[in-house]
Amino acid sequence: MQRIGVFVCWCGSNIAGTVDVQAVSEALKLEPGVVFSTNYQYMCSQAGQQIIKDAIKEHKLTGIVVCSCSPRMHEATFRKTAAAAGLNPYMVEIANIREQCSWVHKDVPTGTEKAIILGKAAVAKVNLNAPLTPGESPVTKRALVIGGGIAGIQTALDIADAGFPVDIVEKKPTIGGKMAQLDKTFPTLDCAACILTPKMVDVAQNEKIRIFSYSEVEEVKGFVGNFDVKIKKKARYVNEDVCTGCGACTEKCPQKKVPNEFNLGMDNRRAIYIPFAQAVPKVATIDPNYCTMLKTGKCGVCSKVCTAGAIDYKQQDQIIEEKYGAIVVATGFNPISMDKFEEYAYSQSKDVITSLEFERLTNAAGPTAGKLLRPSDLEHPHTIVFVQCVGSRCENCAEKGKEYCSKICCMYTAKHAMLVRDKYPDTEVYVFYIDVRTPGKNFDEFYRRAVEEYGVHYIKGMVGKVTPEGNKLKVQASDLIMNKQVHIDADLVVLAAAIEPDKSARPLATMLTASMDTNDFFTEAHPKLRPVESPTAGVFLSGACQGPKDIPETVSQAGAAASKVIGLLAKDKLTGNPCIASPNEQMCNGCSSCERVCPYGAITYVDKEFRMPDRTTLMRRVAQVNPAVCQGCGACTVACPSGAMDLRGFASAQIIAEVDAICK
Amino acid sequence: MSHGNNNLKEELLRISGVNPKKCMRCGKCSATCPAYDEMEYHPHQFVVMVEEGNIEPLLNSDSLYKCLTCFACVERCPRGVEPAKLVEAVRLVATRRQGANHLKPDDVPGKLDEDLPQQAIVSAFRKYTK
Amino acid sequence: MQVNEKKPLIVAFCCNWCSYAGADLAGNNRLAYPADVKIIRVPCSCRVNPMFILRAFQRGADGVIICGCHPGDCHYTSGNYFTRRRMAMLFSMLDYLGIEKERTRVEWVSAAEGAKFAATMNDFAEKVAALGENKRLEDLRCKR
Asked: What are the residues of chain C with a beta carbon less than 8 Å away from any beta carbon of chain A?
C-alpha cells in the first residue's frame, strides 16, 4: 500500500478564489492510501516545496499528489522537489485544479466539487504508480552524412567546425552533387562552381572529415547515439591514396565512347575518368561496364601511363564498419524522366532538353564549352521555348509526374531566359507558365527583371504539343490571356522537369526506419517545429531529401541539421524518457501488431527461452522495446491484442483507475 | 459571379463525371486541341463556364460540334479534369432538348468535304445514337 | 434516484501535446465550459484504449470525448490517425449497442485553440445533456 501525501495549492486567489482548498484537502485525506493532506498558499514557492520535502520525510511518503496548476507548468518543479527529498520523481502526480478548474468555473461549490474529483483521480493514479528510472545510453561522438551535395557538404563542415569527426558517404566518385553541374545560381547570378568548389576543398582539407566517395550505405543497426553502419566502398580500380589526379590515364584510355553522366550524356568520356576538373577527391575511377581490361583482360594502357602506379585491376569492393552517434540524410533529388511526356517529343528530338541539360549547355566546362548551341546540329538557336511545370502539379498522372510543385523551376527558368537574352540578344525567348511562383528574398524582382529589362516573353498558358519538323520544333500552345492558340517555330525547347527524391532514398529510409511520405520525401518530426529531424531519434534531414528546395534553403537547413547533431554529440550520455512502452513477455504472443504501428521502429522481436511448468523449455518470439528509441506515444499498447504491451507512467490500470475515480 | 443555372450544372457534372474544381487553369487542354481555331469556346472555357454555371452560351454554340472528341485534352490534362467529357455532356444536354439541335442528320451529307477528318463525322453521328 | 437533478458526466481524454495544452489555454483565457467535463491526460490520443471508453460508460459516464492534435500535426507523427480509425470502429459499435453517436466524439484541438476547446466542450456537454442520463452500459454492480 502506498503512503500518499496530498498538497493543495491556493495559488494566491487563483485557485482559492473559486475552490475551497480546505474542503479539498480534507476530502482527499479520506481517500485510500492518503496519509497526509494539507494546503498552502504557493506550493511552488521555496516554502511550499519545503512543506512537501518535510512531509515526505516525516510521513515516509511513497507518493505525492499536488493539486495545483497544469502539469505542463510545474510538474518538473515538483518532481525535482520529490527527488530532493529522496522520493522517485515519477511518484508525483499533478491534479490540474487551476487551468482546468478554478479558472474556467465560476462558483465555489462547483469548483470545489470538481477539484475534489480531479484530486481523487490523481490519488487513484498515484496508488498504481511505480518508481521509474530513465535509461541511459552512451553517445558515439562521430556523425555520418549520407550524400555529398551542397546539403551534405554544409552539414559536414558545420559539424566538423564544432570539433566532432564526420564521415561523408557519396555514391558518385566525387562530392559536389547537383550544384556542381549548375552554371549560375539565382537570384544573384554568381557562378555555382565559384561558390561550391571552395567548400569542397574545405571538406577535403578538414582533418575531422573523411570522405567515402564511390560508396554506399549497406546496413544500419542500432539507435540514437549508437548506430552501427556498414559502408560499401565500391571498387574504383584505382588506389585512392596513390593517385595524384594528374589525368594522364583519362587522356590515353582508348575507350572514348562512354556517355558522360556529368554532362547528362551530351558528350563522351573515357572508361577511366575524373568527373570534372575540381572533383573531390581528385582521383580517377574506372568504369567497369566499359573498361576493356576489366571486360576482356586485354589493354592496360592506363596502368602503363600511370607514373604513380595507382591502377589496381584486382581491387575488390570493401566493407567498412563504423559506429556513429548521429546520421544526417542528404540524399538530394533528381529531375524526373521525360520519356513518358510524348507530347513534348523529348525522346524524338535532341533539341528538346531538360533544364539541367540546359545548365550544362551554358556552362563553360560543359559539352559546348559554354556556347549555347543546339545539340542536334550545333547551330545557334534563335527561338527558344521554355515550358514550366512539366510533371509538376500533375494530379492524375502519377506514373508520369508528381502532384507537388517542384518549387525551383520558376526561378531557374527566369534565370535561363535572362542569361540567354543577356548573352544572345538576337534570340527570342518564350516562357509558358501556369503560375509564376517566386516567394523568396529578391526572387520576384529577379523574375520581373527578366520580363522588363531582358524582354523575355512570358505567356500564361501551357504547351500542348511539340512536333519536330525539319530542323524546327513546331510548338503548339495556348495563350490564356489572349484566348488564342499560338504556334511557334522553335529551335530549342527546354522543359522544366519536376524533381523527385533520389532513388536511393527509399531503401535508405527502410534501413534507418525513418518515415517517408507518398512521394518518397523524408518526413520531418514536426512540420513546423522540428523541420530538420526525422521522427526516428538520431536521424536528421538536410536538403532536398525532405522536400524541394533551392540552394539558400538547403544551406540553411543543412546548418540547422548540423546544430541538432552537435547538440546530440555534445552529450556524454543520453537520458531517456522513462515513460515508455514495456511488454509483458509472459503474455506476448509475438504477433507483430505493435511493431507495425510503431512510428519509430522501437520494437523488435527476439527469441526467448521460457521455462514451462513441466521443466521443459520453450523458445518463443516476444516483443522487445528499445528504451532509447521509444518516445512513449502508446500506439502499440492499443494495438496489442493480448494486452501484453503497456505504457509506463500511463499504464492501462492507471488510466482505468482515473476513469473509475471520475465516474464514481 | 455565378450565372446561376445550378440544376443544369449539376446535371452536366453528373453525366460527365467531371469535377471542374480540379482545374488549375493551365490551358494545356486548349494548347493541345486540334480543333481550337474552329471553336468559339475552347476546352478550357468549357470547364470554367460550366463551373460558373454559365452554360446557355455553350448550349447555343457551334463549338459543341467542332469538338472532335479526340480526347487529346483528356490525355494531356495534368489534373485529370477531362474537358472532352464535359463537352460531350453539354452536347448531350443540347440533343435532349428537342429541337435545339444545331445539326440535323439530313444536313450532314451537305457538309462533308475532302478535308473533314473521319473522326469528326463519326462523332457527329454519335450524338444521334444516344 | 434523482434522475432530473443528476448532472451529466463527461470524460475527456486529451493528448498531452495539443489538446491538454489547448485546455490549459482555455483556462488561461478564462473561457468557461461546464464543470461536468473531467479531463484525463494521455501522452497521445492513440494511447486511448477502447477499453477505457467502455469502462467509462460502464461506470456511468454520459459522454466521452477524445481530443488530439490535428491530422498531420501529431507529436508522434501518426498517432491521431490510429485514433481516428479505431474510434470510428468503436463508435459504430457503441451506436449498435444503443449508445447514441452524440455521446461519443473525436475532436482535433491544437495547443493554440483554447477557444475551440471551450466551444467544443460547451457544445458536447449541451448535446449530451439533451440526451439525458446514459444507462445503457452501466454496470449496476458498481453502483454505490
From this structure: 9, 11, 16, 20-21, 23-24, 26-28, 30-33, 35, 38-44, 46-52, 55-56, 59-61, 72-73, 75-79, 82, 86, 118, 144
Closest CA to B66 of B30, B97, B96: B30
Residue type, C43: P
Out of 3.30.110, 1.10.357, 3.40.50, 3.30.450, which CATH number does the structure's domain C10-135 have? 3.40.50
| Domain annotation for chain B: domains and CATH numbers | 6-129 (1.10.1060)
pLDDT tier, B126 (very low <50, low <70, confident <90, very high otherwise): low
Nearest partner of C19 among C114, C125, C124, judged by Cα:
C114
CA angle A414, A417, A421 (to 5 degrees): 135
Per-residue pLDDT of B58-79, as tens digits, reads 998 989 888 988 999 999 999 9
Average per-residue pLDDT for chain A: 94
Task: Give yes or no for a contact between B119 and B49, defined as CB atoms under 8 angstroms apart.
Answer: no
Query: Residue C125: pLDDT band by 50, 70, 90 thresholds?
Result: very high
CA distance C69 to C78: 10
What are the boundaries of each domain within chain C? 10-135
Cell 596502368 belongs to residue:
A303
What's the confidence (pLDDT) of residue B130?
A: 46
**Model ipTM over 0.85:** yes
Q: Which is more confident, A15 or A136?
A: A15
Q: Inter-chain contact A485–B24, Cβ cutoff 8 Å?
A: no
Asked whether the predicted pLDDT for residue B124 surpasses 70, the reply is no
- Cα–Cα distances in Å, from A607 out to A205, A588, A604, A618, A622? 48, 12, 10, 10, 6
| Residue A422: other Cβ atoms inside 10 A | 12
Extract the runs of DSSP E, i.e. beta strands, from A502-558: 539-541
Cβ-Cβ contacts under 8 Å, A480 against chain B: 25, 27, 30, 44
Chains A and C share 3 or more Cβ pairs within 8 Å:
yes
* Cβ-nearest to A395 among B29, B76, B79: B79
Ordered domains of chain A (ranges, CATH): 4-127 (3.40.50), 147-226+317-332+510-570 (3.50.50.60), 235-310 (3.30.70), 335-500 (3.50.50.60), 581-648 (3.30.70.3270)
* pLDDT at residue B4 is higher than 90: no
Label residue B122 by pLDDT band (50, 70, 90). Answer: confident
Residue C1 has what pLDDT? 38
What's the mean pLDDT in A532-555?
Answer: 94
